[in-house]
Amino acid sequence: MKEPFERVVARHGATVLRVCRAVVGPVDADDAWSETFLAALRAYPELPSDANVEAWLVTIAHRKAVDVVRRASRHALPVAQVPDRVVQPADRHLDLWSAVAALPPRQREAVAYHHLGGLPYADVAALVGGTAAAVRRAASDGVATLRRTYPTIDQEEL
Fold it and tell me: Using CA atoms, how far apart are residues 13 and 134, in angstroms rounded to an integer?
């Protein structure tokens, strides 16, 4: 028997948010997170009871995050008054998210889906294409780059 959807959100919400932040950044992550769980809510009744719910949610989050990026690139945001300077959102890990965003796409995806999303390398490979060994290498290279460019990184933060 499947657990109630509210428990699914409570159990996996933080993981999905970390993945969304890694893919789209902290500003648009909430939109991707919301869209992920709205889509998941619609599809949840048909999900087999033995399915890997976390992997399923991360897959949906990946697709919704890509949608958010595409949508943002096509639309200008109207504002009442143009600010004199760029306003950065208040986030204690903004520099870490910036470091993750600066990784090459393959490394960023491998780090996000494996280290932040908790997916096994084989599942990440199925999601992004390639082999588990190639994804493992990309994740390793990404973490090594983060350690060089973000010296206070702690494995618990990933």
Answer: 28
Backbone torsions φ then ψ of 57, nearest 5 degrees: -65, -40
Q: Is residue 16 within 8 Å of 33, Cβ to Cβ?
A: yes
Please provide residue 39's backbone torsions phi and psi, each rounded to the nearest 5 degrees.
Answer: -65, -40
User: By the 8 A CB rule, do 114 and 121 touch?
Assistant: yes
Q: Are residues 15 and 57 in contact, defined by beta-carbon separation less than 8 angstroms?
A: yes
Give the list of residues 6+ apart from residue 138 with CB closer than 8 angstroms, or none. 106, 107, 109, 110
Q: How many CB atoms lie within 10 A of CB 3?
A: 11
Rounded Cα distance, 58 and 51, in Å: 13
Widest CA span in the chain: 55
HEC per residue, 66-90? HHHHHHHHHCCCCCCCCCCCCCCCC
pLDDT digits (tens, 9 = 90+) for 99-124: 787 889 899 889 888 887 788 899 88
